[in-house]
């Protein structure tokens, strides 16, 4: 379960400037579709629309054949997990931040998720800005570490549908390599929509969609799209 369909979706934040001019694609249950395209093309907008942060002007978006307009916000949020580019942590321990993915998780499940995301040693630390009553200072986490917290949270949540907004800026290449394996782990067998920047994701995706000027400019597997002419 977890097939996502965009059918002739048209969307504009401002009616004078259409962002999506009729976009159709499907992410079959368990598959990975990578969205690429220039900055401002509307890639992140697709994920906001799937969460129904905004309503589309025409077309439809469905999950397993059901229009998302007929799904409650609660079930949308439990069906979809997101690893955003910039994770904003709650002002509490890393353990708390991970457990937010599924508050009913046991300590052991929480620790396992933290291990898988390679953030295990941090679970009892507090993020920067947090000031415990004893006056202890929080730890400044790097962009990559915050992303690992988001990955651990998502591992714990285990949603059928996953949105990965891959950051290019937040990670150095060693961290990127580490994170890639954690991301592969979360997205395996899960319906995954990736806003892709990493070549490894693009190569591994079942389909690559090139979004440009509000339409799908090209689509296909990487062997088709990256073929040297
Ligand atoms: P991408 O992820 O491909 O870089 P986005 O989906 O973030 O692109 O944005 C697509 C376009 O929509 C951009 O031109 C951006 O400036 C505009 N945009 C994004 N969010 C808003 C918003 N909340 N209100 C108005 N315009 C927006
Ligand atoms: P959870 O995944 O724990 O259910 P939420 O339901 O609060 O978290 O939000 C889902 C995801 O959407 C979060 O990862 C959050 O970063 C992201 N998000 C929240 N608001 C916005 C927004 N306005 N635009 C884009 N992404 C958002």
UniProtKB/TrEMBL annotation:
UniProt keywords (A-Z) are: ATP-binding, Membrane, Nucleotide-binding, Transmembrane, Transmembrane helix
Looking at the record's lineage, which domain of life comes first? Bacteria
Q: Where is the ABC transporter domain?
A: 4-229
Principal subcellular localisation of the protein: membrane
Keyword flag Iron: no
Q: Where in the cell is it found?
A: Cell membrane
Q: Does the keyword ATP-binding apply?
A: yes
UniProt similarity note? Belongs to the ABC transporter superfamily.
- Can you name this protein? ABC-type transport system involved in Fe-S cluster assembly fused permease/ATPase subunit
Parent-protein residues present: 359 to 587 of 628
């Amino acid at each position: 379960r977890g097939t996502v369909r965009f059918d002739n979706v048209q969307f504009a934040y401002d009616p004078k400037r259409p962002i999506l001019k009729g976009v159709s694609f499907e992410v079959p249950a368990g598959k990975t579709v990578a969205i690429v395209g220039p900055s401002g093309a509307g890639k992140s907008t697709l994920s906001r629309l799937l969460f129904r942060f905004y309503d589309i002007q025409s077309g439809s978006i469905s999950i397993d054949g059901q229009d998302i307009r007929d799904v409650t916000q609660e079930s949308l949020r439990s069906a979809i997990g997101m690893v955003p580019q910039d994770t904003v942590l709650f002002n509490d321990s890393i353990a708390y931040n991970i457990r937010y993915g599924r508050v009913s998780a046991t300590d052991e499940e929480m620790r396992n998720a933290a291990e898988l995301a390679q953030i295990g040693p941090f679970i009892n630390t507090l993020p920067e800005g947090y000031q415990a009553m004893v006056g202890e200072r929080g730890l400044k986490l790097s962009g990559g570490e915050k992303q690992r917290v988001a990955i651990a949270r998502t591992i714990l949540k285990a949603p059928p549908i996953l949105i990965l907004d891959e950051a290019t800026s937040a990670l150095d290449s060693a961290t990127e390599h580490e994170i890639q394996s954690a991301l592969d782990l979360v997205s395996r067998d899960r319906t995954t929509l990736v806003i892709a920047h990493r070549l490894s994701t693009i190569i591994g995706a079942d389909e690559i969609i090139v979004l440009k000027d509000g339409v799908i400019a090209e689509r296909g597997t990487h062997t088709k799209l990256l073929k040297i002419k």
